[in-house]
Specification:
By secondary structure, the chain is of the alpha+beta class. It is built from two helices and four strands. It has one domain. The longest helix is centred in the last third of the chain and has 35 residues. Belongs to the flagella basal body rod proteins family.
């Protein structure tokens, strides 16, 4: 394993966590969304990761395997005066849980920061190695 492969692994993780943060931001933006014109409310999305082990044909690291919609049913709120209410007077809201999304955002942000630190540490070690050779 080359020292430079650390940058590939951390770089792939940073890219994946960045995509996760974008999905979390989209979910949080739609926390209070009601059903759209098609009658379907926004569904929370989750990022699924896949690791690529060292020694495989592809570069080692992590990648986003897919982004899937949550199948948890959305909230139904009784509000017959709402313009989006159905025939029974219920309004369909998104299934996004703001607390879960905030925890997800903190986790993704810390993972991102940790991988930046890994890259900075590897850079420092490589520079120290070069200085020893002088």
């Amino acid at each position: 394993m080359s020292m430079f492969s650390i940058f590939n692994v951390s770089g792939s993780a940073i890219s994946a966590q960045s995509q996760r943060l974008n999905v979390v931001a989209s979910n949080l933006a739609n926390v209070d969304a009601v059903a759209g014109p098609d009658g379907q409310a926004y569904k929370a999305r989750q990022v699924l990761f896949q690791t690529t082990p060292m020694g495989s044909d592809a570069a080692a690291g992590v990648r986003v395997r897919s982004i899937e919609e949550s199948q948890v049913p959305g909230r139904r709120v009784f509000d017959p005066s709402h313009p989006s209410a159905d025939g029974e007077g219920y309004v369909n809201h998104s299934n996004v849980n703001a607390v879960e999304e905030m925890v997800n955002m903190i986790s993704a942000s810390r993972s991102y920061q940790n991988n930046v630190e890994v890259m900075n540490t590897a850079k420092t070690l490589l520079l120290k190695t070069l200085q020893m050779g002088q």
